[in-house]
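#structure-requests
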Amino acid sequence: MTNRYERYSSLKFDRPHPKVLRIILNSPLKLGVMDPVMHRELSEIWTDIDTDRSVNAVIITGTGKSFSAGGDLEHELKVAKDYDLRMQAMKETRDLVYGMINCSKPIVSGIRGWAVGAGVACALLADVSIAAKDANFMDGHTKIGVAAGDHALIIWPLLVSMAKAKYYLMCCEKLDGAEAERIGLVSMAVNDEEVESHTIAVATKLAEGAQAAIRWTKYSLNSWVRNASPIFDASVAYEFMGFAGPEGWEGMQAFLQKRPPNFPTETTI
């Protein structure tokens, strides 16, 4: 392992193939919830990978039977009240999304258990996404009183159509891996015990293929995604405005207190 990865504490790395780097989300929190350190490291890792000539393909996966159940709401409450923390989190969100889109190396995600919020971003922005049939996906933003941000507006309509994107993002409905494959949200769904072997097989095939051809194909396909950059940038701004507003505060408090939220019934928007 090259020294460039030694500085990461919440991400673990191994090599299932000499030219494949596997990133393992190693959160100390339940269900792989991202603490602030992991969120920052996921916004930075893609530059290191992009310039690492020893890596031809990347796998991103969770620990055990969990991918990542999104951000740490205890920290998000601090973000809601602290402007500097809010701007830092917003920058990290943009860097994570654009980092995955613009990383020249193909990325394969292996998804088991819950993938929510920022976890879904890492799962779906991968170039090939492989989910367990019983994995659980949910965007989750409007449930806690903020606009759907992170990755959602840049990729969901392309993957599943505008009609499906509106339904799942506005209603915060969850779906399992089998349904995610049916509607095109993920590349494929397999039995839980097959996720690891499938991700390694796909990443190995990409790592051993024609590298320039694969990378230029990724770059060209992601031009469709980059075309949605203004939509994504606006959605992230709306999301972080919401964190500082009454709906975001009430939504996060209600979730942490395990009670129904009491959102205002009217808004000036």
